TrEMBL record:
UniProt entry tagged with the keyword Cytoplasm: no
Keyword Signal assigned: yes
Name of the protein described by the UniProt record: Phytase-like domain-containing protein
Domain Phytase-like as annotated: residue spans: 93-391
UniProtKB keywords: Signal
UniProt signal peptide: 1-19
Xref: SUPFAM superfamilies: Calcium-dependent phosphotriesterase
Species name: Lentinus brumalis
Length: 503
């Protein structure tokens, strides 16, 4: 049953918005040219045309299982065939959103992995005048629909508990065509530990999920049942004393750092190449400290026939993440395919509403070009004894991707147009701290055929004073809503998967 709700009626500071007419006047059909920020990359001009939409889901909203709906910005994707243009210049579609591992501020919990479907109506605002926060919410209206839960082998629930145990690799038998590698499991119930981050939807209804524990990539059926597991090269796997150890509580000797797994997941326009981005450098590549962890890895898998043979690694490149003024790495939270060799990468600090500090210095969807980068897959660098970087410096012989600043989420002028701000006070209009997702949809503008809407959503970490987790109420001491932003961007040569949209 669809659980429809009106955001303005549920948000404690926007209860009066339904009592007055919207102040969104469609005085422009295109963004104000003065907002445009142009970036040159690979001989092409990419343009950030500014913020055009904002919406939220209140921090205390509950989903169909009875739990608080939270963390949904860990990953978003557009449901295939759902995005279309309405009359009057509005657009509609359905987000598939995926939280990570539940409310775990006080430790990991036995929380089943899941995804949610959320319908939306986008009414882009192109005016230069500042909207009231309540009116800004009318630019992106959101309606929760339903929730799908994830199960693993033997119909067991997945869990969010820390992976303190290892399930041995499967051996091939008559009923197993593609065996599981050694898997991260909880020590108590032995269920698959899943800290879900990336999400890619396939044409046949199956979907890929990247996680932080492995870091692995899992293929699930349309009903949420585990089908297959992809394991990255050994250099990325976490080893302690020569043995696989998937815990997120401590860093391994080599491999991905704790809580720094495959944050980003995307697929090319043909749906045959899957890309996974490590959040920051592996331990041997400098991941022990933020000052040396900028050189991370983007790995590509051939998924053209995933049910016939295990997808193999077909590419691996070094990504030079941005650094703040202190020289610390701004880790990656998402990657999204744009065109051959070109991607969007979401890198950020942890400040904002619900973060360590109210004032954020960096939250951006940046451009990455790997066209001239060195492909290191199948080389000595897939062995952890051969790091790609030492003490924060890339070894000789490796050319990293080209990284360019592009769309800032914290531009003061753009935030003010939607009643938002960066920095004090810490109220409902403060931009959230943790933005971790990206999705693209065409603008259907014949005058600007390369223009797309760039959607992003925040992971609010389930922070609510009226939360419910595993049937038990909790008070996190703060209310942080699930915020969504929409930008309009020009991406030359970009395309979406053919069945993602309908005209």
């Amino acid at each position: 049953m669809v659980l429809a709700w009106v955001i303005a009626a549920l948000s404690f500071q926007v209860a009066t918005s339904l009592a007055r007419p919207s102040q969104i006047h469609r005085t422009r059909d295109e963004p104000d040219p003065s907002f445009a920020v142009k970036v040159q990359l690979g001989g092409k001009t990419y343009i950030n045309k500014g913020l055009v939409g904002f919406g939220l889901i209140p921090s205390n909203f509950t989903e169909s299982t009875g739990d608080t709906l939270g963390g949904i910005g860990s990953a978003i994707a557009l449901k295939r065939g759902s995005f279309s243009q309405n009359s009057g210049g509005t657009f509609k579609g359905t987000f598939v959103t995926q939280p990570d591992r539940g409310f775990n501020v006080d430790g990991t919990i036995d929380w089943q992995g899941r995804q949610h479907q959320i319908d939306f109506v986008l009414t882009p605002y192109y005016g230069a005048e500042d909207l009231d926060f309540n009116d800004a919410l009318n630019t992106l209206k959101l309606t929760y629909r339903d929730t799908l839960l994830y199960t693993e082998r033997n119909a067991q629930k997945t869990t969010g508990l820390d992976a303190l145990a290892v399930r041995p690799a499967q051996t091939l038998s008559n009923n197993i065509t593609i065996a599981d590698p050694a898997l991260p499991v909880a020590a108590t119930n032995k269920h698959l530990s899943l800290d879900a981050e990336g999400l890619v939807l396939n044409a046949d209804g199956t979907f890929w999920v990247s996680d932080e524990y492995g870091p692995y990539i899992y293929l699930f059926s349309p009903l949420g049942d585990l089908i297959e597991t992809l394991q990255p090269p050994k250099a990325i796997l976490p080893f302690i004393d020569g043995q696989l150890n998937f815990t997120s509580e401590t860093d391994p000797d080599t491999g991905r750092a704790g809580n720094q797994g495959f944050e980003g997941l995307t697929v090319d326009s043909t749906g045959t190449t899957l890309y996974a981005l490590l959040q920051s450098a592996t331990i041997q590549d400098g991941g022990t400290d933020k000052s040396t962890s900028r050189y991370t890895r983007l790995v590509a898998f051939d998924i053209s026939e995933p049910l016939l043979t295990r997808p193999s690694v077909v590419g691996e490149w070094v990504v030079p993440l941005p650094q703040n003024k202190k020289g610390n790495t701004l880790a990656a939270s998402e990657v999204h395919f744009v065109s051959d060799g070109v991607f969007l990468v979401l890198s950020r600090d942890g400040d904002g509403h619900g973060g360590d500090d109210n004032n954020s210095a960096y939250k951006q969807a940046d451009l990455l070009d790997i066209s001239n980068a060195t492909d290191i897959h199948g080389t000595k660098f897939d062995d952890p004894t051969n790091p790609i970087a030492k003490k924060g410096s890339l070894v000789k012989g490796i050319t990293p991707g080209t990284y360019k600043s592009f769309v800032s989420f914290i531009d003061d002028t753009q935030l003010a147009r939607f009643g938002l701000h960066n920095g004090k006070p810490a109220d409902q209009t403060l931009i959230d701290a943790k933005w971790e997702s990206l999705a693209l949809a065409p603008c259907f503008d014949s005058d600007f055929p390369d223009d797309f809407f760039l959607f992003t959503a925040a992971d609010n970490d389930f922070i609510s004073t009226q939360g419910i987790s595993l049937g038990q109420p909790f008070d996190a001491g703060l209310d942080v809503d699930n915020q969504f932003l929409v930008f309009r961007v020009t991406l030359p040569g970009a395309s979406t998967t053919e069945s993602d949209v309908s005209h």
